[in-house]
């Protein structure tokens, strides 16, 4: 009696204090004036160490199309975030460990929205704005009640998938149940022994009028009551009533036995089709008249808990589920965009993809549409053609061509269609030119540093750009290309002397030529051969050069022979033969009759058995062992080793000859 009175008095005072401005707050531990709060792990007064944050990035390079597992979300995970690093043509998918598809399963792409799975609600996002670079994502608060697997539907290179979730520790709490209440713990500080004494007192004074709470049925713990009335244990307070406490609140009216709870209908079904849910409605009524009475007339602890009942279990009509339009196929001008249209049917709060014929009563929306984001830029010719680059003959002329946007600005050529670009350069023919001999100036140096030499110039017959000259052609009077010169007599000059080039090393294809290069001293009428070091201050002419007489055409090339397949008794060896052209490319122009052999025999000699010095006959009559065919036994094979080995070699040679 005293304990119940004390608890009611304290609750009344606590309510008054909380309602009074400037009153002390209640911490998450339900103590008045406590400053403890719940940390990110859900621990009252915790230091954020009661949980573990698991995160990473899935960057595997995928080769095959289809579903690839990204990460496993364990049971009990919270704060789940699965996000693509940036937008791609891939899709994220979610499936339970039992194989049930939650999002984007069975090659069907779901629309962005909320999907229930694993005991929590997942928010599926897929940004579709052209300017957006954000990828798909799954978000959920958790906790999950089973293991879930995240997959990627791979269609293009993986941009990377970031995943993160929180695993609660052993000292973390569930946000629905305070940490100090556990199953079997008394409610409102009322000990189990005191509750039993109250129930016994109720049995004794069932017909007496009491002003206390002992006549009530024992309280039952619910999550609602746990949030409304914080727990207080008796040992936290003084057993005597403080003088500062206000009087207890008035007691509720006596609950008579003339009223009880009765079901009066049900709530409205949560859905009109596809299996919804509804709950029974219980009201307090008079036992005899069944007239509805205030709920205070009935025992609240005896009120039945409404249980969910299925309703409208017939399937909903199938409908066309319209996806979002894809990006326009072109950034400017007329393009195409696509969207996914699926026939779906809702049942048990889940939208399922069904056969298209179930939606035949509805007109199917279009899956493709034309689109135009902006008017494309166009080519503009800004200038006329320039004059031809030559006065006669064939030259070139140019003009200015620019890519201009729809507002008149000059932009990069890539903004316009390169296939439609007008030519900005073309050839021009100014008519035939007259022909004449064109000469260069004589060379300044004589070909010989001493003695007789020549000076040279270039002579060429070509068109003259001055068409007014009365010239018909170059004619046969070709001007001289060399003229004699003499830098004086040579006296003891050292120089390199070169001989004539030898013939090319091969008759066709690329070869080499050699020549003799010696160091000499030139006198008036003689040459003296010197050591090459005497001419080291001069650049030495090359003594070898490449030569190419004519193309050889395709020829047969072969590799070296391989090792023989056997060391005796006849084996074979092989080599690879290819027909190659002059540039060492494969060809089919070689004469097949000249093709070298690709396989030949080798090592035809008989095999000579190796003589084992330890293999001897230990008995004089081993021929009897051989005749009796006892060599198959290890004892005789060892005792008559030489005889048994000879017989075995003869049998092996006989089999090979066959």
TrEMBL record:
SMART domains: TSP1
Subcellular location, principal: secreted
GO MF terms, alphabetically ordered: metalloendopeptidase activity
Superkingdom of this protein's organism: Eukaryota
InterPro entries named in the record: ADAMTS_ADAMTS-like, ADAMTS_spacer1, PLAC, TSP1_rpt, TSP1_rpt_sf
Entry keywords, A to Z: Extracellular matrix, Hydrolase, Repeat, Secreted, Signal
Leader sequence segment: 1-19
Biased segments, Basic and acidic residues type: 192-217, 232-243
Region named Disordered: 174-263
GO cellular component, as recorded: microfibril
GO BP terms: extracellular matrix organization; proteolysis; supramolecular fiber organization
Keyword ATP-binding set for record: no
Protein task: Promotes FBN1 matrix assembly. Attenuates TGFB signaling, possibly by accelerating the sequestration of large latent complexes of TGFB or active TGFB by FBN1 microfibril assembly, thereby negatively regulating the expression of TGFB regulatory targets, such as POSTN.
Protein's name according to its UniProt entry: Thrombospondin type-1 domain-containing protein 4
């Amino acid at each position: 009696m005293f304990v119940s009175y004390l608890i009611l008095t304290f609750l009344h005072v606590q309510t008054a204090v909380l309602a009074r401005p400037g009153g002390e707050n209640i911490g998450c531990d339900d103590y008045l004036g406590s400053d403890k709060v719940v940390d990110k792990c859900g621990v009252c007064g915790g230091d954020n160490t009661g949980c573990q944050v698991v995160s990473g990035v899935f960057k595997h390079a995928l080769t095959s199309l289809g579903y690839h597992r990204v990460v496993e979300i364990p049971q009990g995970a919270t704060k789940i975030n699965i996000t693509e690093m940036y937008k791609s043509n891939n899709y994220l998918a979610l499936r339970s460990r039992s194989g049930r598809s939650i999002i984007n399963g069975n090659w069907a792409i779901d629309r962005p929205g909320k999907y229930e799975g694993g005991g929590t609600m997942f928010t599926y996002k897929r940004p579709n704005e052209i300017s957006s670079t954000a990828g798909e994502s799954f978000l959920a608060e958790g906790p999950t009640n089973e293991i879930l697997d995240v997959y990627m539907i791979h269609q293009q290179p993986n941009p990377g998938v970031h995943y993160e979730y929180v695993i609660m520790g052993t000292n973390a709490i569930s946000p629905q149940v305070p940490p100090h209440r556990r199953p079997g713990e008394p409610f409102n500080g009322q000990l189990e022994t005191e509750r039993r004494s109250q129930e016994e007192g109720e049995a004794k004074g069932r017909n007496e009028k009491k002003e206390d709470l002992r006549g009530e049925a024992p309280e039952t713990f619910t999550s609602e009551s746990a949030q409304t009335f914080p727990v207080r244990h008796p040992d936290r307070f003084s057993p005597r009533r403080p003088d500062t406490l206000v009087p207890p609140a008035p007691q509720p009216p006596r609950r008579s036995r003339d009223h009880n709870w009765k079901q009066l209908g049900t709530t409205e079904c949560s859905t009109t089709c596809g299996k919804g849910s509804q709950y029974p409605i219980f009201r307090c009524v008079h036992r005899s008249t069944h007239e509805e009475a205030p709920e205070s007339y009935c025992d609240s602890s005896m009120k039945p808990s409404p249980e969910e009942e299925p309703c409208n279990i017939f399937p909903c009509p199938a409908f066309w589920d319209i996806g979002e339009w894809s990006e326009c196929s072109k950034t400017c001008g007329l393009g195409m965009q696509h969207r996914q249209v699926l026939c779906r049917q809702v049942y048990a709060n889940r939208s399922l993809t069904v056969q298209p014929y179930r939606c035949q009563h509805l007109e199917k929306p279009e899956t493709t549409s034309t689109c135009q984001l902006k008017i494309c830029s166009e080519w503009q010719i800004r200038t006329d053609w320039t004059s031809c680059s030559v006065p006669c003959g064939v030259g070139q002329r140019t003009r200015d061509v620019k890519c201009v946007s729809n507002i008149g600005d000059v932009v990069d050529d890539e903004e316009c269609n390169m296939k439609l670009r007008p030519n900005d350069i073309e050839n021009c023919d100014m008519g035939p030119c007259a022909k004449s001999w064109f000469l260069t100036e004589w060379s300044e140096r004589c070909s010989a540093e001493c003695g007789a030499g020549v000076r040279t110039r270039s002579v060429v017959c070509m068109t003259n750009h001055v068409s007014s000259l009365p010239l018909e052609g170059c004619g046969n009077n070709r001007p001289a290309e060399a003229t004699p010169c003499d830098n004086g007599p040579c006296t003891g000059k050292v120089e390199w002397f070169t001989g004539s080039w030898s013939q090319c090393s091969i008759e066709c294809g690329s070869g080499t030529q050699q020549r003799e290069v010696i160091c000499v001293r030139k006198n008036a009428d003689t040459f003296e051969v010197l050591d090459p070091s005497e001419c080291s201050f001069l650049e030495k002419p090359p003594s070898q050069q490449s030569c190419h007489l004519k193309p050889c055409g395709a020829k047969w090339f072969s590799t070296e022979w391989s090792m023989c397949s056997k060391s005796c008794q006849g084996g074979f060896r092989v080599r690879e033969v290819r027909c190659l052209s002059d540039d060492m490319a494969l060809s089919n122009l070689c004469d097949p009759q000249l093709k070298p052999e690709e396989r030949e025999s080798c090592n035809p000699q008989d095999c000579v058995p190796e003589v084992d010095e330890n293999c001897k006959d230990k008995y004089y009559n081993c021929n009897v062992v051989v005749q009796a065919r006892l060599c198959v036994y290890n004892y005789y094979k060892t005792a008559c080793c030489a005889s048994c080995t000879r017989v075995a070699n003869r049998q092996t040679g006989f089999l090979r000859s066959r």
